[in-house]
Amino acid sequence: MFVTSCGYHLRSQNSLSKNHPNIKLVISAHSPLKRDLVSSLIASGVKLNVTTSEHLTELKIVKDSLRKVVQSIGANNQVQEYRLEYDVQYGIDDGELKSVHLERDYSFDIQQIGGGQQEEITLRKQMVQDMAWAIIRQINASINQSIK
Q1: Residue 4 located in a structural domain
Q2: Which tens digit of pLDDT belongs to each residue from 53-73?
Q3: 83-87: long-range pairs with CB below 8 Å, 24+
Q4: Residues 109, 69: contact at Cβ < 8 Å?
Q5: Positive or negative: CA dihedral 97, 37, 35, 22
Q6: pLDDT per residue over 27-62, tens digit each?
Q7: Would strands 22-26 and 57-73 be described as parallel, antiparallel, or unpaired?
Q8: Is residue 130 one of the residues assigned to a domain?
Q9: How is the beta sheet containing 47-48 ordered, strand by strand?
């Protein structure tokens, strides 16, 4: 009997909920990341708490910055391409601050300004979702590395 595989394998087990089952999230109420991070933490099996106790991990978002940068300008002095850059710094239980950086480029056509604005809105939403999961993956990776 022969077994073949396409190379696909499941992600490693979620260490976050095992090592930090109860988390208090400290984040600005105005942060676009808050809703997606809460959803991602809950989907990871974490219980979110608002009070502080001994057996509670504090996940603190220190920096949350999403900015638009001009990437290229055409011959007619019109912006042709932008880059969205998203930087987050966080700490767990007053430990060392960790950073996550995401960026996406997109084209801009002044003739189709409505489409360009919609593309930016969509990219911003996707980046916030990606950032929430990137933070969880980075925490899981650091947990798994410290276990080995």
Answers
A1: no
A2: 778 899 999 999 999 999 888
A3: 84/120, 84/123, 84/124, 84/127, 86/127, 86/128, 86/131, 87/63
A4: no
A5: negative
A6: 999 999 999 999 999 999 999 998 777 788 999 999
A7: parallel
A8: yes
A9: 47-48, 22-26, 57-73, 79-92, 98-107
- φ, ψ for residue 60, nearest 5 deg: -115, 120
pLDDT of 9: 45
Threshold 0.85, pTM exceeds: no
Q: Which two tokens stand for residue 84?
A: 């969205």
Q: In which domain, by residue range, is 67 found?
A: 15-147
Q: What is the DSSP string of 66-102?
A: EEEEEEEE-TTS-EEEEEEEEEEEEEETT---EEEEE
Q: Which amino acid is at 113?
A: I
In a domain, 1, yes or no: no
Which residues have C-beta within 8 Å of that of residue 116, sequence separation ≥ 6? 106, 107, 108, 109
146 or 128, which is more confident?
Answer: 128
Q: How many domains does the chain have?
A: 1
**Sequence-distant (≥ 6) Cβ neighbours of residue 44 within 8 angstroms:** 14, 16, 17, 136
What would the two tokens of residue 98 be? Answer: 């960790």
Model confidence pLDDT, tens digit, residues 3-22:
555 555 445 456 788 989 99
